[in-house]
Design goal:
About 10% of the residues lie in helices and about 40% in strands. The protein has about 350 residues and is mostly beta strands. It folds into two domains: about 30-50 and about 70-245, Thrombin, subunit H, CATH 2.40.10.120; about 250-340, PDZ domain (Pdz3 Domain), CATH 2.30.42. The strands form five sheets. A six-stranded antiparallel beta barrel has the order 10-11-12-15-14-13. A six-stranded antiparallel barrel has the order 4-5-6-9-8-7. Strands 17, 18, 19, 20, 21 and 22 form a six-stranded antiparallel sheet that branches. The longest helix is centred in the C-terminal third of the chain and has 14 residues, at about 230-245.
């Protein structure tokens, strides 16, 4: 079971690099690292309203009208981290959602109202802005690409509303696809990640953010030793674009596609089958049809539908791409002007 929601809150200047001290038995001592980075980790509190659900026992009775149209206030909690000491905070999109009020709580107890600068559903990222009342501590991005399976990591956040919590573990896998969308490329870690950790940073031993806690796999809803973090090398350009433009613009062809695997791999290559074309969309205007097989984009071989979608999504709208396609046994090349991806997670 993949869980990415936030939880109800219970009643209860850049940091320099440098690894943690090594304990006598050769295991890392995370105390110094935690002391340096925790001031940059924040709790996110969101408030909003949702339509009140009609209790099952009152459905179909005269009392049902009492509940119709009523709204109830909701509150949730998540995590985030300061990426710029001027007041920019990174978290998950699903943490802030459509909240009417968002606030950020620092480790010293200071609570600041936050403004949502921008969000991106496809990567589940959000950028907030607060007005600092004093000096804020920011953490630097690290390179997730250079991280290796087996390396130590430290996750920090607000699990179950318990702020200022750290957990440690290792990177157990990279490049995980969990069905969240075309940008699935998660770092898997066994550091304990629970509801409320969403949006919190995952640090390497140098105190750099290499991931953002996003989801857990858990039959019970609590930590089961498998957590997923959005890699920093995917998140960083998205956050930079949100800071610059307030939104992320991606390329779009307007097609539905699926993988095409040859029966005999020795006699054919993997490709992408076009199953549907949006009427009057970019692909349709460029001459692409349902049933076409796409073998390359701009002379780069295309073997999976995910690779095609991601490649096009990273292009600026308006750019023209060359698609090598096979149609009814004949090879041809089409020129398609990339459109602007419409809003939504799909």
């Amino acid at each position: 079971m993949l869980l990415m929601g936030v939880i109800a809150t219970p009643a209860l200047a850049l940091i320099g690099c440098g690894g943690p001290a090594t304990a006598q038995r050769g295991l890392p001592d995370f105390a110094d690292l935690a002391e340096r980075v925790l001031p940059s980790v924040v709790n996110i509190v969101v408030q909003g309203e949702t339509a009140q659900q009609v209790p099952p026992e009152f459905r179909g009775t005269p009392f049902e009208r009492y509940f119709r149209g009523r709204r109830e206030r909701t509150q949730g909690a998540g995590s985030g981290f300061i990426i710029d000491a001027t007041g920019f905070v990174v978290t998950n999109n699903h943490v802030v959602g459509t909240a009417q009020r968002v606030s950020v709580s620092l480790q010293n107890g200071t609570e600041l109202p936050a403004r949502v600068v921008g969000t991106d559903e496809l990567t589940d990222l959000a950028l907030l802005r607060v007005e600092p009342r004093g000096t804020m501590v920011a953490v630097p991005w690290g390179s997730s690409t250079r991280s290796r399976v087996g390396e130590w990591v430290m996750a920090a956040g607000n699990p179950f509303g318990l702020g200022g919590t750290i957990t440690v573990g290792i990177i157990s896998a990279r490049g995980r696809e969990i069905g969240a969308g075309p940008f699935d490329d998660f770092i898997q870690t066994d550091a304990a990640i629970n509801p409320g950790n969403s949006g919190g940073p995952v640090f390497n031993l140098a105190g750099e953010v290499i991931g953002i806690s996003t989801a857990i796999y858990s039959p019970s809803g609590a930590n089961a030793g498998i957590g997923f973090a959005t890699p920093s090398d995917l998140a960083r350009p998205v956050i930079e674009q949100l800071r610059r433009d307030g939104r992320v613009e991606r390329g779009w062809l307007g097609v539905s596609v699926q993988d095409l695997v040859p029966e005999d791999p020795r006699r054919g290559q993997r490709a992408v089958l076009v199953t549907d074309v949006v009427r009057n969309g970019p692909a349709a205007r460029g001459g692409l049809r349902a049933g076409d097989v796409v073998t390359s984009v701009n002379s780069e071989r295309t073997e999976t539908s995910r690779a095609l979608v991601r490649y096009v999504a990273e292009l600026p709208p308006g750019q023209t791409v060359r698609l090598a396609v096979t149609r009814e046994g004949r090879n041809q090349e089409l020129q398609v002007q990339v459109g602007r991806r419409p809003p939504g997670p799909g």
